[in-house]
User: Which sequence fits this backbone?
């Protein structure tokens, strides 16, 4: 039997009594690009953080290929939000990418030649090879995002979690990221991406998880990404400008 | 003991010192509240440390000890330090905490340099400048106290007159600017007020511990009230109390330095506030949490039984559940589950046959209400923006009975769309073990209609 | 070795130990927590003395280590119970420091440690307080203590370099790949505590802060590589110590105060003249942009 790459059961996260995520249960198929979509405050980032054990959960369990996350760390790659770190940190792009190897290297050992080669390869894949020695604060937003992606690649994982990788990046970077995601998919890897641009969901993702505190819907994008489901997810805040040919979605305040 | 206290209080010098420390406590408590709310508590620390070179320079320039010139020197170097901190933050990649620590320690180091230089001048020995490091309240003389009191009163007066503006500025600088307040000027004024409060405390409390006079009363006051005007008054009172207690205690026990005793007195008041304050104190919070946990545990058991019943009602399976089934649905310790089931049984909400548990009729209607309320709350959190008018704060207890009927209706509709409407109305929990089922096709139609109407 | 050389060696050891550990504090935005620890260590020293009745280094290190960790812990506790972090630091350090001063005054007759000494250090006495084992004079005991602490720090940083680095840069990622971020935090805080107490005797509490923060902040303006930052910071620590000593000789002033002042001057120079992050280069860059446009 083939194990599911991500199996989340009954995951509940709450601050005091206020639910942030409620009884979220789902399993992801292998080798798909999955978009996690929902309004602000729907718990999208919280979902990733809870899966990775970064925040305490009230109940529920998470399994990566059938085992607890703790024992499967090496199978998992993580791209946090770009704004979560201080880019003035004195280090260069290559060094940040090398951090992706730390989980494999283990205590007391340094990254070796092999790790550096992997990191350089990862940088090359995101088109940042020539910026390897560049101080990270000297990079543009898009380039910083690519460095983060390269770091995740260097983790050499089979399941990836990415928190809003498309926020604040230029068009070229967006294209680079999406082709990279497709390449990962082609290698049979599973990628879960928190995404908030509704226009591109159909184009980018095979599967979509609509989330608003609970799971609203999960499945192949063409089945899930419907007006009904979106209404449910976004409440009355969604206006459908053109429902005929190429629908475009606007989230109203 | 009492006699000792009385004789201490009768001493004229102690009375002067007492007056000084009380006024100083009020002023620093009041201005500390503003510093705290602007998240600038530690800038007060930097100002205090940075005052040392100012005092020394004033002495070197003026030649003898003069409280007036000391205050001017201390205020100027304190303001200069604040300015440097701002420049470093604005013009380099160095962050605030590093900038504060850097300026603080370098100014203080330079102060020490000047202090050793002064010690070598002919009247340096009687300068008493060392007192400024730890404070020496006992050395306050009538003239010092008069100056300190005058400044403290001026500070309080200015704060009182400009309270509205300072409040707005502290709360929302952008908005204050928007309605035409001179925010640059206000910022300068507030900094000057804080630096003055620091400066008049130096002689009594010393540069190192002066930060406590700004921070501790203010943070203690925060526990007793949510409103700035009250907070300022409470902080002033706590500051006065600390000053008074510290002065009396240290003058009774001869060898104890006044400054540190004042600070410890403030700390004790802080600890009392932290632990015992109503609403925000740890005891009150703990009790509240305990009560909530108790309620939640009870609700959880009922809700879990309801959820499970709801699921099996569709498949027509038996509606009695083992403890394991309950536990696998929601995380809970076995002991907690046992005690709650026991209690609920006593109340007649649940009953069991052997190890299998189910809701009674009254339990069913109780559980229905709980489930209805909780699911409605969930729906509310999903569309929080939409229902912003409810003004629901995270620590309030959600109760659907407090919501106006039109909002309630809207929430119920959304609940139906998400298929979260409790399916088992109380009447379905009869004495028997199967349910009378709702006509499913009808309910589906109803749901569709609701989607459209939204 | 001459009297002056011993003092310079002591100062340099303080500069190197503090300079290196300070870099991490700056990058983790914990400079003020270090400031707090450097104050509360006084309480640790007094308590250690009251318990052990000895002013020997090892007891001081243990006492300071415990109180240093307690400081970090209390700040954490207050912060997590809802007190904003700057106020939490302020309340904790002033309380513990005030308690230390009161104990010191109350037992003034018994403790051979006066407050001014604790604050400003007495580096001039260092060379006379020597360590003798079996009748052999091994040099000032402060130098030994500082040397040992420096070696401990260097070993710990060497062993945990990559863990410290990633948990400073990206704690979320560090946690996700299984690095015990809290352990690293308290490890660093213990290093700060023992470094502070070892430096205490020579430069005093406040100037330890200067040595912890100023060289690191200066190095932060001069390089974009962590390892280089550590090196530059150590060098600046040594320069401040030696420069401070000579300045103190010339003007006959407090050595520790003068070290802090020299460190401040070096920082000011870097702040204005640093090739990439300096005020002047930024100003020039802005000007050249404007002139290009016109």
Assistant:
């Amino acid at each position: 039997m083939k194990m599911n790459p991500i199996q989340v059961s009954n995951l509940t996260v709450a601050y005091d009594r206020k639910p942030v995520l409620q009884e979220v249960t789902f399993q992801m198929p292998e080798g798909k690009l999955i978009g996690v979509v929902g309004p602000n405050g729907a718990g999208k980032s919280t979902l990733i953080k809870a899966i990775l054990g970064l925040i305490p959960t009230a109940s529920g369990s998470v399994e990566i290929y059938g085992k607890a996350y703790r024992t499967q760390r090496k199978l998992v790659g993580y791209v946090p939000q770009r704004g979560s770190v201080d880019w003035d940190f004195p280090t260069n792009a290559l060094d940040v990418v090398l951090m992706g190897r730390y989980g494999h290297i283990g205590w007391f050992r340094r990254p070796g030649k092999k790790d550096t080669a992997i990191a350089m390869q990862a940088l090359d894949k995101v088109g940042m090879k020539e910026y390897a020695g560049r101080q990270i604060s000297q990079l543009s937003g898009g380039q910083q995002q690519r460095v983060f992606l390269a770091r995740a690649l260097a983790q050499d994982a089979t399941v990836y979690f990415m928190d809003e990788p498309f926020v604040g990046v230029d068009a070229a970077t967006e294209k680079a990221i999406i082709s990279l995601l497709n390449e990962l998919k082609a290698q049979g890897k599973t990628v879960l991406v928190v995404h908030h641009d509704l226009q591109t969901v159909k184009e980018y993702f095979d599967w979509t998880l609509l989330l608003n505190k609970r799971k609203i819907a999960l499945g192949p994008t063409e089945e899930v990404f419907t007006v009904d489901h979106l209404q449910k997810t976004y409440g009355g805040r969604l206006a459908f400008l053109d429902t005929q040919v190429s629908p475009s979605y606007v989230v109203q305040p | 003991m009492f006699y000792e206290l009385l004789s201490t209080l009768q001493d004229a010098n102690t009375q002067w010192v007492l007056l000084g420390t009380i006024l100083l406590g009020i002023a620093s408590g009041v201005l500390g509240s503003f510093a705290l709310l602007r998240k600038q508590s530690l800038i007060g620390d930097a100002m205090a440390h940075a005052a040392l070179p100012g005092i020394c320079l004033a002495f070197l320039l003026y030649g003898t000890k003069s409280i007036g010139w000391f205050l001017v020197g201390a205020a100027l170097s304190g303001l200069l330090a604040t300015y440097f901190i701002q420049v470093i933050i604005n013009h380099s990649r160095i962050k605030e905490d590093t900038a504060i620590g850097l300026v603080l320690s370098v100014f203080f180091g330079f102060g020490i340099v000047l202090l050793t230089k002064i010690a070598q001048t002919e009247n340096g020995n009687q300068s008493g400048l060392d007192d400024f490091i730890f404070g020496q309240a006992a050395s306050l003389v009538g003239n010092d106290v008069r100056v300190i009191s005058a400044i403290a009163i001026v500070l309080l007066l200015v704060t009182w007159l400009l309270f509205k503006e300072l409040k707005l500025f502290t709360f929302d600088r952008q908005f204050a600017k928007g309605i035409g307040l001179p925010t640059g000027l206000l910022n300068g004024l507030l900094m000057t007020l804080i630096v003055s409060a620091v400066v008049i405390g130096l002689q009594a409390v010393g540069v190192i511990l002066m930060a406590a006079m700004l921070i501790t009363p203010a943070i203690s006051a925060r526990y007793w009230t949510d409103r700035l005007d009250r907070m300022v008054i409470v902080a002033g009172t706590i500051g006065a109390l600390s000053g008074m207690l510290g002065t009396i205690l240290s003058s009774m026990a001869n060898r104890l330095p006044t400054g540190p005793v004042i600070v410890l007195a403030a700390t004790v008041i802080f600890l009392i506030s932290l632990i015992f304050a109503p609403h925000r104190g740890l005891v009150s919070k703990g009790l509240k949490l305990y009560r909530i946990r108790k309620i939640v545990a009870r609700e959880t058991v009922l809700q879990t039984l309801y959820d499970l019943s709801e699921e099996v009602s569709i498949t027509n399976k038996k509606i009695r559940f083992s403890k394991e089934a309950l536990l696998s649905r929601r995380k809970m310790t076995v002991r907690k589950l046992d005690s709650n089931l026991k209690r609920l049984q006593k109340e007649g909400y649940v009953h069991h046959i052997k190890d299998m548990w189910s809701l009674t009729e009254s339990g069913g209607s109780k559980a229905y209400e709980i489930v209805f309320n909780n699911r409605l709350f969930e729906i509310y959190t999903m569309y929080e923006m939409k229902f912003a008018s409810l003004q629901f704060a995270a620590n309030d207890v959600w109760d659907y009975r407090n919501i106006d009927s039109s909002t309630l209706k809207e929430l119920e509709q959304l609940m139906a769309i998400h298929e979260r409407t409790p399916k088992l109305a109380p009447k379905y929990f009869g004495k028997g073990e199967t349910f009378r089922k709702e006509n499913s096709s009808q309910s589906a139609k109803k749901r569709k209609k609701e989607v459209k109407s939204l | 070795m001459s009297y002056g050389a011993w003092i310079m060696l002591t100062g340099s050891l303080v500069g190197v130990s503090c300079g290196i550990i300070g870099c991490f504090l700056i990058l983790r935005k914990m400079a003020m927590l270090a400031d707090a620890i450097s104050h509360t260590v006084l309480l640790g020293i007094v308590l250690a003395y009251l318990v052990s009745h000895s002013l020997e280094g090892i007891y001081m290190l243990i006492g300071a280590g415990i109180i240093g960790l307690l400081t970090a812990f209390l700040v954490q506790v207050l912060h997590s119970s809802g007190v904003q972090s700057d106020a939490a630091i302020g309340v904790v350090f002033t309380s513990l420091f005030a308690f230390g001063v009161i104990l010191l005054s109350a037992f003034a007759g018994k403790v051979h440690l006066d407050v001014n000494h604790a604050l400003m250090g007495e580096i001039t006495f260092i060379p006379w307080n020597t360590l003798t084992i079996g009748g052999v004079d091994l040099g000032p005991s402060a130098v030994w203590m500082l040397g040992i602490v420096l070696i401990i720090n260097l070993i710990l940083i060497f062993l945990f370099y990559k863990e410290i680095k990633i948990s400073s840069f990206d704690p979320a990622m560090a946690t996700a790949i299984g690095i015990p971020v809290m352990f690293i935090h308290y490890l660093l805080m213990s290093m700060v505590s023992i470094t502070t107490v070892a430096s205490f005797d020579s430069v005093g509490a406040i100037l330890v802060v200067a040595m912890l923060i100023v060289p690191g902040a200066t190095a932060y303006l001069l390089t974009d590589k962590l390892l280089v930052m550590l090196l530059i910071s150590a060098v600046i620590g040594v320069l401040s110590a030696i420069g401070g000593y000579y300045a103190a000789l010339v003007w006959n002033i407090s050595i520790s105060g003068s070290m802090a002042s020299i460190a401040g001057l070096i920082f000011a120079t870097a702040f204005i003249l640093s090739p990439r992050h300096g005020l002047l280069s930024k100003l020039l860059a802005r000007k050249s942009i404007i002139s290009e446009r016109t």
